[in-house]
């Protein structure tokens, strides 16, 4: 385990530079928080103007501190930060938290200062959190560190939570009494000048005290390294992500269909599913899912039984169950016969099981014990709306007492005082949820993780003999370059013949043809009238060329040459492509192709680091993939050939870092069930 990261969360001694004697200042409150929460190690304060603060001796500078503390928390003004870090490095400190703001987030000068600090840290072999961050927390008994300036202190749990936003992290911590969230570790990473989510995923994967990793991110520091960090976890742990900033700005610079259809947020969704991560839409789902992994056994399937005493909340729960791709269990006859002994005659023994408002704690317990014995039940969702005659504390206690290896989730809709009473009486018990929709989301996320199997058989970056293949410096590659790369990766390119206008007059046979206009400024040929299909004679060929020349002349675009291809009777037009995502690097896309590609938007995206499972997923998740599988008695397409082309595109993107976009559109599936790439465009970054 990395010692510098270890010292951030498990320091035996720490130095705080920039402590103020003024109550209410960040330095004073952070130091007070460390003391109040019972930090087990030594504390050294640096303040040249004070003899002591909060009963702790102060030193004039870091150089005067005895020994070499494990970690330094820096709160000095921005213009002093570099000097203090130099002093700390000089006495052997290798782990830093830079709370101070005013760096990259403020403009160019701040960015330069941040870069200088990052270079100092790297040169020394040290590690730094921040700047512009809120600090770290470790709730474990042997440490009890709260090096933040937030008043609340979480109860000890098994989750690690990273927040890129200090303010959001503070908001989460300030709501702990209401939400019941528990952490082992909390960290606010701020500007991520050095330490990022990539470092912490690797660290937490090895930490025996952490079972769940939860991340709030506004950006990925290095998406490719992030995927490697996730894939290389020593002990595979759930990683739950709340990613803010769902932007389509990546589309603005795209000039191919593949580039236009690939947005940054689409890529996030793609890699999350591909690498067994869990993406959530809000903070509620982030922490509820973490609670699910921490406190409940994993569901073995997607069949859910619901027990309720109120119709409305049960309907909401059932709607969410269906929306999450789960199913209501079909209860066996034996189960329903047993339920008759406990359910009121006017209630329901079907799923949802309705106990009516008079359902007691004992009734809830008996019904849950019956349901978990049914093979058609993988999870149980208990809903309790508080009536006058039954108390929620007794119901929660009864349900929690059921011994089972199946997850049983309790939703309570009680009077407000219940939450404090439950927390006080059962501090270590399973959480009770507030909304009937919550458990379905948790079950879906837990299932997604536990059903994911790490597949190491992914495409890898390899060294290829690229010399001389790409000679262009920018923009789109020439047809010669494109055909050379296509041959190298065994892309089934339809026979192409490049011809001048005069050469067309010498074409006597080989009909029918497809005629296409060519030129460095001609990208989307169809929109400009630069494609003519099924030309059956030389007269048609010359006429089509004359019309194209006139159209391009009138549009101000030069038609530099023509491309002749044999006309192929088409069954389907596919799209296969690749693009460089700003976060995750090389990506692959598949879907419906042709001139309506951006209208249909029937596409799926994956990281170019494809496995066999990924290839199946990217094809099957599109409408085109379902058509290729054969519908209404049609012949099934050559799926292995499609997968081979997608693998080639992915490998091409990984091998050629300079390529920004690859577009095979259309990739034609002929009536003879053969694949032909009839139009390939490759653009450099």
Features:
685 residues, alpha/beta, Rossmann fold, Dna Ligase, domain 1, 4 domains, seven-stranded mixed sheet, 29 strands, flat
Topology:
Blueprint: H1 3-9, E1 13-17, H2 26-36, E2 42-46, E3 52-53, E4 56-59, E5 71-74, H3 78-90, E6 95-98, H4 108-124, E7 127-129, E8 135-138, E9 145-147, E10 155-163, H5 166-174, H6 176-179, E11 182-188, H7 197-206, E12 212-217, H8 223-231, E13 239-243, H9 257-261, H10 264-274, E14 278-279, H11 283-295, E15 303-308, H12 311-323, E16 327-328, H13 333-339, E17 353-354, H14 361-371, E18 379-385, H15 392-400, E19 408-413, H16 417-425, H17 438-451, H18 479-488, E20 497-499, H19 501-504, E21 513-518, E22 531-535, H20 538-555, E23 561-566, E24 570-581, E25 585-592, H21 597-600, E26 603-607, H22 612-620, H23 623-628, H24 639-655, E27 659-670, E28 675-677, E29 680-684
Parallel strand pairs: 1-2, 1-5, 2-4, 5-6, 6-7, 10-11, 10-12, 12-13, 13-14, 15-16, 15-17, 15-18, 18-19
Antiparallel strand pairs: 3-4, 8-9, 8-11, 20-23, 21-22, 21-23, 24-25, 24-27, 25-26, 27-28, 27-29
Number of domains: 4
Catalogue the unreliable spans.
Answer: 250-255
- The CATH homologous superfamily of the largest domain is called NAD(P)-binding Rossmann-like Domain
CATH topology of the largest domain: Rossmann fold
Relative strand content: 15-25%
Could you report the average pLDDT, rounded to the nearest whole number?
90
Q: Order of strands across the biggest sheet?
A: 3-4-2-1-5-6-7
- Second rung of CATH, namely the architecture of the largest domain: 3-Layer(aba) Sandwich
Count of helix runs: 24
Number of strands: 29
Broad CATH class of the largest domain: Alpha Beta
Large-scale geometry: flat
How far the N terminus sits from the C terminus, by CA atoms, comes to 37 Å
Rg, nearest Å: 31 Å
Structural class from helices and strands? alpha/beta
- Quick one: biggest sheet? 7 strands, mixed
Helix content: 25-40%
């Amino acid at each position: 385990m990395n010692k510098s990261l270890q010292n951030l969360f498990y320091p035996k001694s720490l130095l705080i530079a920039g402590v103020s004697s003024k109550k209410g200042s960040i330095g004073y409150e952070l130091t007070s928080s460390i003391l109040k929460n019972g930090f087990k190690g030594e504390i050294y304060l640096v303040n040249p103007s004070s003899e002591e603060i909060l009963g702790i001796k102060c030193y004039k500078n870091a150089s005067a501190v005895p020994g070499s503390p494990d970690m330094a928390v820096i709160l000095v003004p921005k213009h002093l930060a570099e000097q203090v870090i130099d002093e700390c490095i000089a006495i052997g400190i290798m782990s830093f938290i830079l709370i101070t703001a005013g760096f990259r987030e403020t403009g160019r000068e701040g960015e330069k200062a941040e870069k200088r600090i990052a270079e100092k840290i790297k040169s020394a072999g040290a590690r730094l959190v921040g700047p512009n961050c809120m600090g770290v927390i470790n709730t474990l008994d042997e440490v009890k560190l709260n090096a933040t300036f937030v008043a609340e202190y979480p109860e000890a749990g098994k989750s690690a939570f990273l927040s890129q936003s200090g303010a959001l992290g503070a908001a989460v911590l300030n709501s702990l009494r209401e939400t019941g969230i528990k952490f082992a570790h909390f960290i606010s990473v701020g500007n991520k000048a050095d330490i990022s989510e990539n470092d912490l995923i690797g660290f937490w994967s090895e930490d025996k005290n952490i079972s769940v990793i939860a991340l709030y991110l506004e950006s990925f520091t290095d998406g490719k390294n992030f995927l490697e960090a996730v894939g290389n976890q020593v002990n595979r742990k759930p990683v739950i992500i709340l990613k803010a900033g769902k932007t389509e700005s990546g589309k603005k610079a795209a000039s191919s269909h593949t580039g236009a259809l690939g947005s940054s947020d689409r890529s996030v969704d793609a890699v999350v599913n591909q690498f067994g991560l869990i993406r959530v839409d809000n903070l509620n789902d982030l922490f509820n899912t973490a609670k699910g992994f921490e406190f409940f056994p994993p569901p073995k399937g997607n069949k859910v039984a619901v027990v309720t005493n109120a119709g409305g909340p049960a309907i909401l729960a059932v709607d969410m169950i269906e929306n999450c791709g789960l199913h209501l269990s079909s209860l066996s006859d034996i189960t329903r016969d047993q339920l008759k002994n406990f359910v009121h005659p006017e209630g329901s023994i079907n799923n949802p099981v309705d106990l009516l408002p008079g359902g007691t704690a004992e009734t809830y317990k008996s019904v849950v014990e019956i349901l978990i014995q049914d093979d058609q039940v993988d999870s149980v969702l208990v809903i309790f709306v508080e009536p006058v005659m039954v108390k929620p504390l007794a119901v929660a206690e009864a349900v929690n007492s059921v011994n089972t290896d199946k997850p049983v989730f309790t939703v309570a809709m009680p009077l407000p005082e219940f939450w404090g009473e439950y927390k006080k009486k059962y501090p270590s018990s399973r959480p009770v949820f507030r909304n009937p929709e919550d458990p379905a989301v948790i079950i879906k996320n837990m299932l997604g993780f536990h059903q994911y199997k790490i597949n190491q058989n992914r495409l890898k970056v390899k060294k290829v003999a690229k010399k001389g293949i790409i000679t262009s410096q920018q923009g789109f590659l020439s047809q010669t370059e494109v055909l050379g790369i296509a041959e190298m990766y065994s892309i089934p390119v339809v026979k192409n013949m490049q011809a001048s206008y005069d050469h067309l007059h010498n074409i006597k046979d080989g009909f029918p043809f497809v005629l296409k206009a060519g030129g460095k400024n001609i990208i989307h040929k169809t929109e400009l009238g630069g494609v003519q299909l099924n030309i059956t004679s030389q007269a048609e060929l010359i006429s089509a060329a004359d019309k194209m020349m006139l159209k391009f002349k009138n549009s101000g675009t030069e038609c530099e040459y023509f491309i002749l291809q044999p006309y192929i009777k088409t069954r389907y037009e596919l799209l296969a492509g690749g693009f460089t995502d700003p976060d995750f690097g090389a990506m692959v896309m598949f879907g419906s192709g042709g001139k309506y590609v951006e209208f249909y938007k029937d596409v799926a995206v994956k990281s170019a680091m494809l496995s066999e499972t990924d290839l199946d997923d990217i094809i099957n998740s599109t409408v085109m993939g379902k058509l290729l599988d054969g519908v209404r008695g049609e012949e099934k397409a050559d799926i292995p050939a499609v997968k081979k082309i997608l693998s080639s595109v992915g490998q091409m993107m990984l091998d050629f870092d300079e390529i920004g976009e690859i577009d095979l559109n259309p990739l034609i599936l002929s009536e003879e069930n053969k694949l032909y790439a009839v139009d390939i465009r490759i653009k450099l970054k």
